[in-house]
TrEMBL record:
Keywords, in A-Z order: Membrane, Transmembrane, Transmembrane helix
Domain of life of the native organism: Bacteria
Full protein name: PAP2 superfamily protein
Regions crossing the membrane: 12-32, 52-73, 80-102, 131-149, 156-173, 179-197
Domain Phosphatidic acid phosphatase type 2/haloperoxidase: 87-197
GO cellular component, one term: membrane
Presence of keyword Membrane: yes
Amino acid sequence: MTAHPLRARREVLFALGFALVLGGLYSCYGALNHGPADWIPRTPLDEHIPFVPAFAIPYLSAFLLAVLTAVVFAVKSADLALSTLLAGIILLLIAYTCYLTVQTYVERPVEIGEGFLPDLVRFVYGNDEPYNAFPSLHTGFSTVFAIHWLRYGGKAGVLCTAWCALIVLSTLFMHQHYLADLASGIAAGTIASLISWRARGLWAPKAPAE
């Protein structure tokens, strides 16, 4: 069924607006990614999580998943696309509030090893300071994607949700985050997704009566 012209125009305008705001907010990440840290949310359980360089692959694949999600939702469902964008904005606002008020620090392994996979870990570490960890944005965005892929449904929805779960786990086994960072990331991503989905009326006005 063809979307009503009024709704189609609103969807395009909201998509452009949300994308600009999301991009602008994301560009501020580096400016916040520094100390001093107020606390290190490490727990005894974190001490038993092994360092596995192979998890750098699913960790980096988060960016590929973001592109795939944007393309599929833009083509298949404006509601999902716009809700995902708005959820990303809300997630960043929640996360940045935490980074500004209660900055954290993650202790990374000293011995990483040699080879392709350890080099990928070095690439990640070299491009991301060990701050801005609570909540984990990799986890938060993966949660947003997972919730919206579940709404999308089908095999693609299940597979992409499983992919999201693997990305979340990768943040632990790469020693990029602690368990508390994951818990807060899941909570922030869930809250952001619930708010954005309920806000669909912003871009989906009722069609005028014939």
